[in-house]
Design brief:
CATH topology of the largest domain in chain A: Beta-carbonic Anhydrase, Chain A
Structural class of chain A: alpha/beta
Shape of chain A: globular
Oligomer: homodimer
Mean pLDDT of chain A: 96
Radius of gyration of chain A: 19 Å
Strand content of chain A: 15-25%
Low-confidence stretches of chain A: none
Number of helices of chain A: 6
Largest interface: A-B, 98 and 98 residues
CATH superfamily of the largest domain in chain A: Carbonic anhydrase
CATH class of the largest domain in chain A: Alpha Beta
CATH architecture of the largest domain in chain A: 3-Layer(aba) Sandwich
Chain lengths: 192, 192
């Protein structure tokens, strides 16, 4: 097995040795959910003060309100009783470095990892590409407060989302660790 | 604003006061990604030993290999250089407590939170329902090692996923904190 695999299992062994959370119930104790980006620099438990058992955390590339994020949020509320939702995008997001067209083009050329240089993304030219990326909406971001507003709006207007759930829209600053409210998104997400 | 909102911002203030991670680069330093469940009891950073900057974390209801999880994984590898992926489902998952049909029926009856009792899920009868749930695949789980195998298989056979990325399939035990390998999934996910 790989070095990373061994490291993860070794870290898990230490976690198990000190584990005292085996009694926690399934529904989140603090009744809320966070939708945020998969970015490695973000640790929602740390930046929002969560302990095990507190809140649902949904993460994807960009922290976008994709169909799958909506699926998760509806389950979170309908079956597991969360009553407030946070949508948290962040500064310096990878989703701002490319467009739908760039990603599709890169994947058509090669499936291997691309490189980011002064003129943007380029393929290193190994191997075969595939056109399947043409059928995926990559949900890229142009500007963070715009994407937060769009996603809060999308969730707010979804037919399966009750009007009395407040949806908070914020941006996490990767340079400072700070959560910053997006006033327009906060307005859009207000419970009705 | 709500009590929860104030608590999250207060916790964030403490995080910012001790923050020393402002220098981290965008690509994950340890070049791997974890796909796991949104369940509140799971803290992937803790159970797998991650610091800020180490690894991408993708989470949804069940930790399923949905289209959106695939979107995130492909971006994670193609643009941000992760080279190994973990798929981690868990014991006592909420996704095992219902079926596609139960969820659709609950949502048709009411959008409000349902209750779980001795005879399973039931609606408390308030408000209006909506049929939009009929058009969503809720990605429920019958048995965890089966769902891990299915998801590792789905990612392994996706046309945009290079064969040289190993995909590890594991189950997290919420009673002990332990990560347990699923041998069949490990086999399916081997790099080719």
């Amino acid at each position: 097995m790989s070095k990373i695999f061994d490291e993860v299992l070794a870290a898990n062994k230490s976690y198990v040795a000190a584990f005292d959370k085996g009694h926690l119930p399934m529904p989140p104790g603090r009744h809320f959910a966070i939708l945020t980006c998969m970015d490695a620099r973000l640790d929602p438990a740390k930046y929002a003060g969560l302990s095990e058992g507190d809140a649902h955390v949904i993460r994807n590339a960009g922290g976008r309100a994709s169909d799958d994020a909506i699926r998760s949020l509806v389950i979170s509320y309908k079956l597991l009783g969360t009553r407030e939702w946070f949508v948290i995008h962040h500064t310096d997001c990878g989703m701002e470095t490319f467009t739908q067209e760039i990603m599709r083009d890169l994947l058509r050329k090669s499936l291997k990892a691309a490189q980011f240089g002064e003129s943007g993304w380029s393929d290193v030219g190994q191997g075969e590409g595939h056109p399947a990326g043409d059928f995926i909406n990559w949900l890229t971001i142009q500007e963070q407060s715009e994407s937060v507003c769009a996603d809060v709006q999308h969730i707010r207007s979804h037919p399966l989302v009750p009007q009395d759930i407040p949806i908070y829209g914020l941006i996490y600053d990767v340079k400072t660790g700070k959560l910053i409210e997006v006033p327009e998104a906060m307005q859009i997400g207000r419970a009705g």
